[in-house]
Amino acid sequence: MRKKLQQLGPQMRHVFIGRFERVGYKKSYRYCRPTLLLTHVALAETGELITDHLWLNYTKGFLDLGELLTGDLLRFNGRVASYVKGYFGTSQKLDYKVERPSQVALQAKIEGPRRLLPDTVTKFGRQALIGYIMERERAFYEASCRPIDPYYIEQYRVWLTNHVMKNAQNYDLVARKSLTSHLKNAEPH
């Protein structure tokens, strides 16, 4: 299905709509980079299905939307680019992706509680976001034997303690109710 991406070409930016599936990360030489998976990616103008799935870098535009839930429809601009898929020394092939997403918007939102996400401006925030991803997708990573690094998990927990737990106004209604019931159960009678 990537032939349709190839046909669009890199000459101009296009507007796409895709269904958010899940978050992920990719390992670089020295660090992890957050990603997200969209499925059923179509051209916004025509509704034509362009690819069944697309991995994108989890850029600031997506982060500004807050926590995404499976099924959220996202709209964004991007440019098609080619890349070599596979590792050096193994079978490699040319594939196509959409890069530099901009003007990211939530087209349709699934109802449900949403958590705050770490701001990735600082190194600590970027590490906390990777921890959030590892925590959220733990079952997937364990099932596929991919590493869950305790360092990143701890960074996310520290971020939660420092940025969310101390500021009650940052909790959404569900988190407040959960915290209140937990505190009531912990009080001696």
Describe the protein's architecture and organization:
The model is unreliable at 173-189 (pLDDT under 50). Strand 4 (73-85) and strand 5 (93-108) form a beta hairpin. This protein starts with a helix and ends with a helix. The chain has a five-stranded antiparallel beta sheet. It is built from six helices and five strands. It is an alpha+beta fold and 189 residues long. Helix 3 packs across helix 5 (150-165).
Total strand segments:
5
Q: Rounded to an integer, what's the Rg over CA atoms?
A: 19 Å
Strand content: 25-35%
Overall shape: it is: globular
Unreliable residue stretches: 173-189
Query: How is the largest sheet built, in terms of strand order?
Result: 3-2-1-4-5
List the secondary-structure elements in sequence, H or E. HEEEHEEHHHH
What is the helix tally?
6
User: Roughly what is the average pLDDT, rounded to an integer?
Assistant: 83
Q: How would you characterize the largest beta sheet?
A: 5 strands, antiparallel
Q: Determine the structural class based on helices, strands and strand pairing.
A: alpha+beta
- The span between the termini is 62 Å
User: Share of helix among residues?
Assistant: 25-40%
